[in-house]
Amino acid sequence: MSRRLLMMCLSLLSLGGLVHCSKSSQEGAKPAPTAATPGATPAAAAVKTTALTAAQEQQASWIRNFNPLIAPGTARFPTRAGVYEPLMIFNTLKGEFVPWLAEKHAWSEDNKKLTLTLRSGVKWSDGQPFTAKDVAFTFELLKKHKALDFSAVWGFVDGVQAKDDTTVEFTLSRSYVPGLIYIVHQPIVPEHKWKDVADPVIYKNETPVATGPFTEVKVFQNQVFELGRNPNYWQKGKPAVESIRFPAYPGNDQANLALLTGELDWAGSFVPDIERVYVSKDKENNHFWFPLVGNTTMLYVNTTKKPFDDVRVRKAISMAIDRDQIVKVAMYGYTRPADATALSDAHNRWRNAKALEEGDWTKLDLAKANALLDEAGFKKGEDGVRVGADKKPLSFDVNVVTGWSDWVRAAQIITQNLKQVGFNATLKTYDFSPYFERIQKGEFDLSMGWSSEEPTPYHFYRDLMSSETLRPVGEIAARNWHRFGNKEADALLRAFEGTTDEAEQKKLADQMQVIFVQNAPSIPLFPGPSWGEYNTSRFTNFPSKDNPYAKLTPNSSPENLFVLTEVKPK
Amino acid sequence: MRHLLRNLGLYAVAAWASLTLNFLIPRLMPGDPASMMFARFQGQLQPEAIDALRLAFGFTDAPLYQQYFTYVGHLFQGDLGISVAYFPANVTEVIATGLGWTLLLSGIAVLISFALGTALGVVATWRRGGWLDSVMPPVLIFLGAFPYFWLAMVLLYGLGFVLGIFPLRHAYSDTLAPAFSGEFIFSVVQHMVLPVAAIVIATLGGWMLSMRSTMVGVLAEDYITMANAKGLSQKRIMFHYAARNALLPNVTGFGMALGFVLSGSLLTEIVFSYPGQGYLLIQAVRNQDYPLMQGIFLTITLAVLAANLLVDVLYVWLDPRTRAR
Known about the structure:
Chain A: InterPro entries: Peptide/Ni-bd, SBP_5, SBP_5_dom. The complex is a heterodimer. Helices cover 30% and strands 18% of the residues of chain A. Chain A is of the alpha+beta class. The two termini of chain A are 38 Å apart. Chain B has helices at 2-28, 33-40, 48-57, 64-76, 91-126, 131-144, 148-162, 182-219, 222-230, 234-246, 248-264, 266-271, 278-286, 290-318. The N and C termini of chain B lie close together (10 Å). The mean pLDDT of chain B is 82. At the A-B interface, α1, α3, α8 and α15 of A face α2, α3, α5, α7 and α12 of B.
């Protein structure tokens, strides 16, 4: 292990960061390939084989909390799906809603009323029946406590009514079809238990009563907890797994080590060079699947600043970037270069061939990039740096987060690439907080960033092009960090909100892609992989490339419910 | 006694100053916890969620001085607030999950390191030029030059992962429930060996060398010659005459080390997934969890002050000169 890696680990560990942070410290601590005795540790050998061992959250010790309504990620996995359940689940790989607690949904003629028909015979884990009243009650809770309404459902819903035991009707304030996912993905809580909760915002719900496959807290210690089956689960014979164990791992390092020792059956962490590090240890049992259905990593361009307000400059920047190298060097070849629609594989069926054809600007083409910049009036000076009309050289910063090593490597390649076409680009690394503050306030030149993940391209493009999400520089914007608004796109988005007709939606999405491709409001780099690993020595029927019934990753709720209910003991 | 009382006053002032700093420093950092939480879900949450998060965490735009008074007021009621990173658990509850383990791990490590290092220092100086005196210092300095989390990684990799002699993580076996049984205690000890070893190896050199250097000075004193002339036993001279007097600097060091016990083993805990306090602090900083940060800093500050008080008392006992006046 080199000194540099060490220092990196040290600074990472001390400075902190998010998911990516642990990623890179993991690289630092990567065990050599030659040494491995899987299952040799006393701890691994003692683990009961009836329990599926999974790693999803990174914590050093567990706090008992099974409240599905509070901020995602604060309650223990899998509270939001697995303990409690949603009405329907969107399956990203299949691109469709799968009925769950609700059997079907229907929109009224004007798309302002949504009727959900609930499954009958569903019981809470204490034996009480699950009814439409529970659904209405849950949504009323969100209305009463704004702090619980994470998808801002009450921004477009006017009222919720339980018509009878199995029918719930949502009245919307406007036709808003993309709102369906926020309604049906809401975890539902039992009225008979929650009506007496004084403050659901800070309620820890230590002994959950729920409809999900795993509701019994069998063990809860601060370094491990175990959830057992729901005796009243509505899917007969499921789950096949008796219980799930969650040992606490403070970071990717420790989770990956557990993967290597064969202790973990299911995980969703980033593992560098996984074929060599993980699969080769036990080719028969160790598997991974990283489908490219995550969000797209972007290079955001501040469109309020000169010269980035010029679409030719944005396209030229994009054409100068060597995405193949980024994918290979920064991303271990886990992904592919993005195309000009910026859509990930989750949206494959929406991709417009015509827009793709027009979008040549994500392909490396230095000659064309140079020509575009010349045309835009930025001539190369004597030192090879381009100067604008004001005779000032084109200098700018590329912002990235300290310690997110994959992004830092990508940004290094980008600055090198940009120098070749005459930009004086400098890499600037910031701690996460200042980075995020800058990007939200629009105080940057170029910056790496992520995009949104939704079932349809509607939200994706709304956050990239809608003037509704536009905020002035200096004011915090949760999305649209690059500050780009387009009237045509606004109209398309409006139309999309009002239609359930798939053909119509496809047509609108096609046009959105064309506008995106023409305007290049931000520069897509690569679609994000969805990390997932599994070990088949004790359990089978995990989703995989050959059996893609759902995303493998435990990190994506409520989709992980598919895996929780389908996995079987060997 | 007057001496101790005056010191108590000083400690009170120090405690107040650090409380105030605890309050101010996190608030001077850029960003806010809601944004951090939001960002953790890169693109999976709606923008509106930020507002919901802010509401849930109960952020106020109240002027700083008002926040300060609320903070101090709550503090005296033993209410450290609600943690953001571990929402909605109370800070006291969060700290309670790790404090015991951290105290156990680092406390034992510091004790072993201090006792062993000091003893080695005494013996090495007594036999100056012997093999112990010539071999140990350079070796220990070399080992001490590595940060202890790195030593921890090497131990984890070598003895834990490759050889499988020691467990890789946690404070006790996952299949056991905490209990006062032989099996459980054995498991705790077994899980503690590597992390404690990492800290001891890294810090032993310091204790030994500082003891050695004061011992060298003390051994040249006239009263040692006098004791030798009186024909006292070597053991008595070594421990009662030389070591006791040479111990003072090390006792000061011990007090300091005790205080930092809470913060010191942070990285080692992370390497071994030890359910201690170290990771909590990192989580708190990552998530801009002001209440948790304040709570942890508070425990560290109080621990440092308490340890110093303890050293003061020890000093008075060890060195009669401090009793004068």
